[in-house]
Design goal:
Number of domains: 1
Radius of gyration: 19 Å
Shape: rod-shaped
Structural class: alpha/beta
Helix content: 55-70%
Largest sheet: 2 strands, parallel
Number of helices: 2
Order of helices and strands: HEEHEE
Distance between the termini: 72 Å
Strand order of the largest sheet: 1-3
Number of strands: 4
Length: about 70
């Protein structure tokens, strides 16, 4: 009986961890200021910091536009 309880608890914890990881993978970053690096460079930099796949929305450009 004790083994069954431990096994159920382990499955529950793994399920919670999996859900948390899924939420981490789909991060949307809004209102990011982009400079000369461009959108792709900025996205890669954010992915390194956050450790998840970042989707950028609402990017504002700073600097002179030709």
């Amino acid at each position: 009986m004790k083994e069954l309880e431990e096994w159920m608890k382990k499955i529950e914890l793994e399920g919670r961890k999996r859900k948390k990881e899924e939420r981490k993978r789909n991060i949307i970053i809004k209102g990011v200021k982009a400079r000369e690096k461009g959108i792709e460079g900025l996205r890669k930099e954010i992915e390194e910091i956050v450790g998840a796949t970042a989707k950028l929305e609402g990017i504002r450009s700073i600097g002179k536009k030709d």
